[in-house]
Amino acid sequence: xxxxxxxxxxxxxASSRGLGKACAVALxxxxxxxxxxxxxxxxxxxxxxxxxxxxGVSVTPVI
Length: 63
What we know:
globular, 43% helix, alpha/beta
């Protein structure tokens, strides 16, 4: 499904797991570059790496 948001940027809060992660993955699948936010650096970095590997979009994790 084409959402028409490819090339845009988004900040996703609480994106290490759960709904935040699901939103981040959906946005990345649509071609959106991301800034991810979370409390646990290890989990957030793993999520960012997972999204980059799966989609190739730019992902910046911020604690």
